[in-house]
Amino acid sequence: MTGARQLSHALDGCRILLPVDRRSGEFASALERHGAETTVAPSLTITPHFDDAELLDETHRLIADPPDKVVVTTGVGFRGWMDAAEQDGTQDQLIEALGRAQILVRGPKARGAVQQVGLDIDWVAESETSAEIIEFLLAEGVRGMRVVIQHHGEGDPAMERTLEDAGARVRGLVVYRWGPPPDPELVARTTGMVASGSVDAVLFTSAPGARAWLRTAEKIGTLPAVRQMAGERTMFGAVGPITASPLRARGMEVVVPERFRLGALVRETVQQLAGPETATPTAYGPLHVRTGGALLDGAFHALGRSGSDVLRILAARPGRVMSRSEIAEELSSGIHGGRPEGWGDGPTTERAVEVTVARVRSAVGEPDLIQTVYKRGYRLAMDRDDLAAVRPRGA
């Protein structure tokens, strides 16, 4: 925890993983203000640009031979480029050279960074995608044009090839580079945490970071279980569609906010984990189950892992009576019980289910939240209208 000022308790009991480097402290604080417990484990690091000889050499060539078009893909990258030029003593010359070109930017962050140094912008890709930039350039025509692209950490060879095939002379500038994670063992452990159902949400802010985290999971064998958890038990979130693409390519369900911003992702996470649309209705108010307990009618109740899992199993089947043996089986080997294939702790007994149910009833202070249906099993207590809404016809 960072000691962030508390805004709400909506995420009390939620364990959220942030495999991010840049702005990780700010991100963690924003979530902790709503009660979340965060783990920051960067899957990559950003390599400083000040002593990047390749970047400075390319900057000198650009000043000597100004381009016709400049594509700025990220605000942080453009500011880093300006900082490097300032350290090199060539910032004024660089700005003058860029001012002669048509400037295209990918989204409002890049626009703000360019405007900050006094340059005019000719066009903005509102979708914040490279595909929209390519489409615009090809429609305008680039044959014989000198095009400079300021890339993110991985570069974009496909974009360069497309423009070169259209006749452009393309120069790519990688302003900041992705390096290895500061703690590879921690990254590996976090994939196991997700695979074992110990994390409520995993949030990404860059496509390279998401790709690197998935590669680690694949390398150590946790990826199949991680994929099972995605959407069913663990929320995977991304700041935008580009960041989400490596996850979606693996068939994973990803939550993306309407506005591709860090603050918007925090708000969307609160809605997903504590909002009315994702709650399970009960006779005692809306229920959200998380790793550390349950949020019932706005009040958090701490529970042990088995207690949270039993509630999650019942909440996944609202209105349905589940036998002790069914719950025990799910606790031993089910997704909602946090035990995907290969991650079970061994069989759970029916007696253990009875003990866990008693503990949950005591912890939440509502003995009838989990109802006992004579000779059949347990179900969540629901109002008659809610029960009718979820019960199949003829049940």
From TrEMBL:
Entry keywords, A to Z: DNA-binding
NCBIfam families linked: PRK07239.1 (NF005568)
Record domain OmpR/PhoB-type: where: 268-382
SUPFAM superfamilies for this protein: C-terminal effector domain of the bipartite response regulators, HemD-like
Protein name per Swiss-Prot or TrEMBL: OmpR/PhoB-type domain-containing protein
GO terms, biological process: phosphorelay signal transduction system; regulation of DNA-templated transcription; uroporphyrinogen III biosynthetic process
GO molecular function: DNA binding; uroporphyrinogen-III synthase activity
UniProt xrefs under InterPro entries: 4pyrrol_syn_uPrphyn_synt_sf (IPR036108), 4pyrrol_synth_uPrphyn_synth (IPR003754), OmpR/PhoB-type_DNA-bd (IPR001867), Sig_transdc_resp-reg_C-effctor (IPR016032), UROS/Hem4 (IPR039793), WH-like_DNA-bd_sf (IPR036388)
UniProt entry tagged with the keyword Transferase: no
Pfam families (alphabetical): HEM4 (PF02602), Trans_reg_C (PF00486)
DNA-binding region: 268-382
CDD domains assigned: HemD, trans_reg_C
